[in-house]
Amino acid sequence: MLSRAFARVAGICCIPVIWLALVGSAVAEESRENVFSIGLGQTLFNGDMTAAEVSIRHQRWELGGVILGQGDTSEGAQERLGYAASITRMLRPGWEWCRGSVYGRVGLAYVDGSPLVGHFNFRTGVGIDFRGFSLEYQHLSSASLTRLNTGIDVIQFRIPF
């Protein structure tokens, strides 16, 4: 009984500690040039849809537009294209993994046409930036601030220009 309680507390506390470490170490991030990128991805866990994104990054901020394809979701069919627009803060703590640079993002998104989330959401992500491409896991969710909050999870392949 005590071990279950400890595991639950550790699970609840672990995520904020990791998040604070990522944000804290990203404070020293250097400014980068403006970068235009495109991304193609696939939803995970709660649906079977494709996702395409176009984004522009200026220093530590990124503005993006996403199209979610038609498909099946855990909340029913997505019968028309879904659209999202977001602004995110890029976090680059300077960590290396598999010859790539680890990064994170946190921001706000407006989503239209998805049965998985409401209109106003948070957008978070973590990725690995290699020299000519990056791989990123993204999550869109209202953090239970709205009734409709299944969430959208996407794994995405991104190419910068």
Give a short synopsis of this structure.
Helices cover 15% and strands 54% of the residues.
Fold topology:
Blueprint: H1 2-25, E1 35-44, E2 47-48, E3 50-58, E4 61-68, E5 71-73, E6 76-78, E7 82-91, E8 96-97, E9 100-112, E10 120-129, E11 134-141, E12 152-160
Antiparallel strand pairs: 1-3, 1-12, 2-5, 3-4, 4-7, 5-6, 7-9, 8-9, 9-10, 10-11, 11-12
Helix content: 10-25%
Please write the CATH class name.
Answer: Mainly Beta
Q: Pick out the low-confidence regions.
A: 1-11, 19-31
Overall radius of gyration? 17 Å
Q: Structural class, please?
A: mainly beta
- Described by the principal axes of the CA atoms, the overall outline is globular
Q: Helix and strand string, N-terminal first?
A: HEEEEEEEEEEEE
Total strands = 12
The spatial strand order of the largest sheet comes to: 1-3-4-7-9-10-11-12
Strand content: over 45%
Mean pLDDT: 82
CATH architecture heading: Beta Barrel
**Main sheet characteristics:** 8 strands, antiparallel, barrel
Tell me the number of structural domains: 1
